[in-house]
Amino acid sequence: MAEVEELLDGVAVRLPAAEEIRRRGQRRRARRRTGAAALCTVALLAAGAWALLPGGPDGRGTVAIAPDNPFRENGAVRNLPAKEVPLYGTWRWKDNEGRPVDSDARGDLLNRAGLGTFCPGTSPETGRVDRIGYTKEYRGVRKAVARQCLVEYDDEATARDELRTVLAGLDADGLSRTAGASQDVREGAAAPETVTAWSGKVPGGHTLRVFTQRWKSWVSVVEVLDGDS
Question: How far apart are CA 147 and CA 39, in angstroms?
């Protein structure tokens, strides 16, 4: 269709043909779609998510974006802040600034199932050079205590083996898994993150809860011993 010429206030204005108007509209819509797709892709990559991007014989290829290490922040080892320790709402945890939490009568309860020797510490007499341990302790109301031991191993295989040992000790000591499932331990899969939770009654009528988490060659064990009722 030929272009249309109109006269506005004595000035000739040449209008594009209908076909040209449609083509311009299609180009604008295509640019908008491309821009929106690019923004979505950037957002998914920034969030560390699983994104479906074009590729492969069917036009859809899966790209796995590895999550960040939850145990490091800005290059430094990150033990749990008190407010992130499980059951904070009940026991109102604070960082322990006094004697070790296992130095009193409750120490035997925290050190059950081999957990007393799980964290290697930094003393050379441990004889273990394939791991580094970082311990942080907490105290709560009514004599509740908690402890996190975070261990970095030389390799992921060692971390998986040590986690299996921890879980076997909890089971042998009579604690029961209370939530979640460890795909990593059950099938030996190299899952990016494995979380389990255990609990059981210990002498004195208290409940000991243990939360384990693995990320590659890192293993975290958090113990929570309930306070007085």
Answer: 42
